[in-house]
Each structure stands twice: as C-alpha cells, then as structure tokens.
Fold this sequence. Notes:
Pathway: Glycan metabolism; N-glycan metabolism. This protein is of the alpha+beta class. 20% of the residues lie in helices and 28% in strands. Among the domains are: 725-807, Sandwich (Immunoglobulin-like), CATH 2.60.40.1180; 829-959, Golgi alpha-mannosidase II (Immunoglobulin-like, Sandwich), CATH 2.60.40. It has 18 helices and 50 strands. The structure holds 1-deoxynojirimycin (NOJ).
Amino acid sequence: MSRWLDLSVITSLFQKAYINDDDFERKFKVSKESSYYRRNRAYINSISTKDTGTYHGLFGFIRSVFNKYSTRATPIYELVSDSVKSDKDGSVNFEVLNTKDNVLISFRLTFHDGEIFRIRASEKDPLIPRYDEAAGFALVDGKEGPPLLDPSAIKATAETVDGPKVFTYTFGTTDSGKGSQSKKIRITEKPWKIEYLIGDEVVLQLNNNEYFNFEHHREKTEANEADVENGWSESFKNWTDEKPRGPESVGIDIEFPGFEHVYGIPEHSSPLSLKPTRGAEGGYTEPYRLYNVDTFEYNVDSPHGLYGSVPLMLAHNTKHTVGALWMSSAETWVDITKEEKSKVTTHWVSESGIMDIMVMTGPKPSDVFAQYAKATGTTAFPRDFSIAYHQCRWSYMSQKEVEEINSKFDDHSIPYDVIWLDIDYTDGMRYFTWNKMTFPDPEKLHRLLDETKRKVVTIIDPHIKVDEDYFVYQEAKENGYIIKDMKGKNFEGWCWPGSSAYIDFTNEKAREWWQKHYSFDIFKGSFPNTLIWNDMNEMAVFNQSELTLPRNLVHKNGWEQRDVHNLMGMLFHRSTFEGLVKREATPKRPFVLSRSYFAGSQRYGPVWTGDNAANWEHLAVSVPMVLSNSIAGIHFVGADVGGFFKDGDPELFTRWYQLGIWYPFFRGHTHRDSCRKEPWSMGEPHTSIIRDAILLRYRLLPYWYTLFRHSNVSGTPIARPLWVEFPEQPELFAEDKLFMVGSSLLIAPVLEPMQAKDEHAKASASEITIAFPKNAVWYDFFTHKAHKGGETLTRNVELSQIPAYVRGGSIVPTRERQRRSSELMRNDPYTLHIYVDEDGSAKGDLYIDDGETFDFEKGGYIHSSFEFSENKLVSSQNQDPKDVSIDAEVRNKYRESVEHIRIERIIVVGYQKVAAKAFISDSQGADREVDVEEDPITGSLVVRNPSVSVAHDWTIELKQQ
Ligand code: NOJ
C-alpha cells in the first residue's frame, strides 16, 4: 500500500513541477542564463569584426549600424614568439599568452596512428588543477588515445615569407581521387591559428576568428567575489550554484572552409544537417547545448540538450569529410554560423576543464568513421536476440500480466524476443530486488520465457533509495561511494524511490562494487536470460535545478559534478556492462540499454532517444535523431516505437512500426498513462500490418547482424544518411527523411498522416516523393520494379505498404521461416537476394556466429563474401579482420557446428538474360545442377534449393540450358 502511495506522490510531484507547465523548456537553461557562455560571447563580440546575432526591428537596425562602425578590441591571446617546438615523440608544443592577465596557456599538438591529430591546452601554472579526465573515459586506449605516429613519419618545416612565422607538419598522405595529396597542419604565429590542410586546401581551422578564450583560475578577492558576472556563484530560478573554485571556462572557434553542412553533436531533436544558431533566417536563436538532462516529451526541432551528448561534429562536402571531437564532459554550448556560402564557423564553449580537441582527418566518410572508431572504440557486438523485436511498457505490473502478454504474441503469431520490466517489478524501487506480491516467482517466469528462447530485461536505475535496511544503500554508505555535497555530506535528492543517494561512478572502486550486484547470488531472481536497462542516468533528480545533480557536488579527487556531468550516464552504463560480462563462467555478450551517453558509449550497448510522444512530429524527428547518433559512433540506437507519451492513433501507431523495423534498436514502449500499445492493440487491419512489418525485420536479421559485424570491426554506421553512401551528390547532403540501412537498403518512411485530396473523401493512402540517388539502379523491395538513379518518384503508399528499395549491385541475405523468436531461427537456412547493377553484377556478405559468446573474437564465426558477375555467384570465406587472434580449435568447432546450415534459395532480381539451369560446384561436395524458375509475380529468377552449406566455398553458374 505505502509503496504505491510513494510512487503516486512522487509522480504527481514530478508532473506538477514539470509537465503541467506551458513553457516546458523554461525548466532548462538557455544560453543567456549561463554566465560563462555570456562572458565568452561578450569577449568575442568585443573583438569580432562581425556580429552574428539576429536582431529585428528598429533596435536591430540601430544595433547593426552600431556594430558596423564601432571599434573592436584587440584579442587578448597571443602566441608566444619562438615558443613553437617539436618534441622527440613527434608532438609540437607552444605557448599562448593571456596578455591582459599575463597568464600562459600551454598547447600540445600530437599526431596519432590512423591519421588523427589532437590539440590539448591548459594553464601552464594553474592555481588549482583543471579537469582533464574525460578523454580517459571516452578513448578506448585511455587518456593518451591511439598510439602516437612514429616521429619519422612527420615532416616539419618552418618559414617566414613576408609576414608571420608559419610552421608546417606533414603527417600523412591521401589519394582522394586526384592523385596523392599530403595531410598537413599549419600553425601561424600572428594572428595565431592552427589549420588542417589536404594538399593546398584548408579543411579545418582553429582560432581563425580568434574566439579562443581560456578563463584561468583566479584568487578569490572581495572585489571579484562580489562581481556577479564573473563571480563565485550564480543563480538559475530558485537555485544557487556556489562555485568554490571560482569561474573557469574554455572556448574557441572551429571553422570548416569549403563546407556548407555540419552534422553530429547528438543528442538534439533537430535536423540532420545542423542549423545555424546565429544570424540566419530559419535558424535557431539558441546554440546547440550538450548537457545531459531528463527532458521528457522534448520539443521537436530544438537545439536544447537532451539525454546524451557526443561532442563530435562532422563536416562534409563533395571532396572531404572531417570530424572534430571536443573532449569535454562539462556543459558545452555550440554556436553555428553560416554567413558565407561554403563556410561554416562553429564556436564551442565549455564550463570547465582543459581544451582537448581530436580531429579525424578523413578524407572520406568511411575514413572518419574508422578514425573515430580507432579513438573511441566500436559498437559492442550484440547478441543476436538484441537486434530483434523488444516489447516494453511502463510497466507490466505483474508476473501474470507478463505471462499473458507473452502468450498473446503467440496467439497473434507475432515473433518477439524480449519482454521488459519497468520500475514496478522492484520492491519499492530498490533495484536488485523483486516485488514479491506481484512477481512471486521470477524463476518460473524466466523458465517460461526460455521455452521460446525469449529474454527478460529488468530496469536498474542509478538512484539508490535512502533506506538503512536496503543492502545497496548500506554498502554504498559504508564504503563512501555516495556523491557528496560541498560540505562533505552524502547528497540526497528525489527520484522514483523518494529520497535517493547517487553513486560516484567516476570512482573505479565504486564501479567494481556496482558490477558485483549483477552476480546471480546478489541479484536474486535474475538468470542468464535476464538482461538490463539503465534509465535516469543523466543523473535525473526531480527536486534539483534542471532535474539533475547540482553542479557543485563533489566526486573522487575533489572534481565537481560540473566537470564530469556528461560522463555520468556512460560510467553507469559501463559498470553494468562490465558486471554482466563477469556474471557467468563463460561470459556472454551483455545487453544493456542506456538512456544517457557520451563519446565512447557505443562500447557498452545501445541507447534510445528517450521520452518522445505519440505524434507525427516525434515520428519524423526520430529519423534525424537516429542518424545523428549513428554518424557519431552510437550505431545501436532507436526511438520508442508507438511514442512514449499519449495514445496516438492507429494510423500513426502502424506507421511507427513500419519505420521502427529500420531502427537498429527496435522496441515498442509507452508511458503508464497511455493506452495499450502491444502490436495487436489497435485491432485489425493494423495488427496484421504490424505483424508483417515485424516479420520483415525478422526475415532481414541476417542482413542486420552482418551490418553489426561491420560496425563492430570497422566503425561503419548501420543506419546511414544518404551522403555517407553518395558523398558526391550535394542534393542529398541535407536529406533526413530517406536513409540507408547498410549500403543496400534505401528506406522511404511515411512520416505524415494520409490526407484526402477531396475533403469528403476518405484517404486510403499517403503520398510520398522519393528522389533516388544517382549512379545506381533501385529495385522496389517487394515488387522488384526497377527505378533509375536520379528519377523522382511520387507514389501512393497504402497503410499496408512499406516503401523500401534495394540498390542494384547488392546481395542481401534473409531467413524466411517464421518462428516465435530469433534464437529459434539459428539453424534455419538462408535465402540470398541478388539485385544486379547496370553491369549485371552484385556483391554482398553474410556473417554468422553463435550469437551469444565471445568466441567470435577467436575466429568462431563464418563470414562469407558473395560476388555475382558474368552469370556466376561465388561464395568465399576470406574476411578475417586484421589484428585478430584466431584460435583454430574454436574456429573449426564453430564451422562444424554450422555445416548443416544451407542456402535454400537464390533470387536474382533485374537479371536481363534467360537462365534455365544452375550449375553448382561445392568445394566440399559433388557438382550438381538444379532448375531455374521465374517468379510469376516479380519476373525475377529463382534458384530453389541449391543446398550449399554456409560453411563452404562454392559457385553457382546460371546457364541457358
Ligand atoms: C523514464 C524513461 O525514459 C521511460 O522509458 C521509463 O518508462 C520511465 N522512466 C519509468 O521507468
């Protein structure tokens, strides 16, 4: 009884405070409410020769005239003459002087393997240290990043030609189609700036506008303490942020000459091609914010910060792609101006810490992805079930309800793999416990689900109920793992369990302790088929400023929450991931969904886009949100299918499934106050249409799994913006309705409701327009009708239709037998779909492994390449990534275990010739011949039952006779 009371009181407190507010976003800061942002802007406005604000009316006119004719101050930072020196390890060091306060800032430029360079800057003699640990958590090799390039590979020159000294460092070459070009860094002494060039073309510039500003620590004096703008405290609404270290911040401009589009810096509910934030009609009037907060039911088309932050920006034009990672875990604001065509200027300002920028030098999109993966790691390779369909609701309230839902999936012949338990399964939001009344026998529940190889995901949030009898709280307190306030007391805030403590996950001891809770002995009632959901890890605190931890809370080594804020979600996610790896004697690949994230989170599991709403705007914005995350390394990502808040209507619900099957992470989820949203909840014809959509996802699982392999090995995104696949077609650079899944599937989702042309008529279809990318032929996935690249197609899409196209030149593997869960498909045969290009050729691949252990790291997999040309399909297994240590025994054992798995059908689409027979020669079997048929509906050729093994090399040749 009291448990329910607790939750309803908390929920209503939460709703009163945050939901029933017209001006939702006023719960969160805008840039002018941040003193360090104001100071940085005031500084750049004082020195800048141009003004990038958007001003309207008479005031605007006066302001623009004033700006034009007013005199500008000289920038206060100067590069110290003759300070530029190369070190033995190939790094370059120099100093910049704050001429106003006579404070030196030390710079270090390093070159890393993989053609990445990095620039770090900090105070030379700091009064107190500045936070510089973010890289240690974000980078896969630790704080220093990928190994340094051999110094002999760097060529340094210095010159002074009628002007300032210029230092050039050549560190690589690239062949971007026009012969070999060198990659260089150029440091100019006055006005000082750092530039990255390919050949003679400048691709990225740092401090070209002299926005560099490094607010150094100062002694506290009576005068500066009282100075509100520069002071030791600041207020937002009723909250005061005391700053015992005083103000500090860091800012600089990063400019991309020759570019019109920049992307990335998720998470925002904004278009894929980032909008200008200053000085442009149709742009935003606020900078993009990177500050992880619990922004449920967020506004669509906004630069406000959401649950996760990846401070990686990509710029792309027809010649180059480049990426800049701003390694700060503090709150960061990013302004974007596009004053001149073909130049994007960005201005980055963070509240604290050092300046640490890593540049992925490209020049192709795939190079940037590989470089970023080298720096921050690749996607944790998921278990096979985790890329199938997941069913969630806040909450399935009892074991009985879960059992009912489970059998309804079977009654409706809809496959699913995972049922999710939201907060109500716990004993009063004490994580790692069960509500014994409503979930009396978790073991029975897990056994039941295991009969169909289904899994249970239980939510584990980071807030710990303050309860002296709760073992997690007791231990956290005893061990000193709770985050403290400024006075050294354990901080307590409000969240689902009522008064809650928060663990300091920056402390490795606390992380290790947390991991242990996932052992089956401690989390009683969890089993090998229990996986985990980490929610509220921004960290969410209902009764604090911006619904999160106060900035001056104290972490290990005295760092403040403001320094580490954007890392919190990732560190919690990481601890859970590491705990799951350790819980079984033969480790299985963990599955942990996280709401909050940072650069590098891809190493620990999927994320989702948080609390969206059941409306068309949220459906549509989920596409650029998934894509922006994807290009920033967060490949395993999805949005709540069906919309979290509100009911929506059956049409929206159905369209959402038809889009959701193309999200890398595919989960239906909804709020406790929304209507039922299981796939059958809207009745017919919706149930059948949704079933077909989910079945399509299951059929294509082999294609998806192979894409995840590439993501895990080379950092290639799974859901891809069109420009990634067609980097030389500028008309596609801002496209964010159409997208690719892998390099073969073009998805054209329906993002608007049907609208009848005549107001009395009832619409029966939606109309969409698809401009097919050039230089390819495109086949309708269902009818096999061919469309030429460059063609613009306007078509009706009936509710039962899913517009998807396949790029000619692809080979796509599927599994066509319907089962109740993906694991039950493991021994099923495959079908290969060959879609020929204009030359009659196609390529593809298929990756398979045991779907759950880490044996794939030792060679326990099959990765076949398929090539079709000149009427012949060749399958060969030659795809071992470099640097992999193969264990022959593991490899052979796995091969033997899949020997029996066959290719049961080959479909050739767009093949212009006649073929009656297919001749099969199998490396480990007798040669044979089968008939070739023509599909009466699509006209495509079908080779039935070639019966070749996935574990062999073989060829199949089509012949007229
Ligand atoms: C907030 C999450 O975003 C949502 O998905 C979940 O259902 C609720 N917390 C309750 O746990």
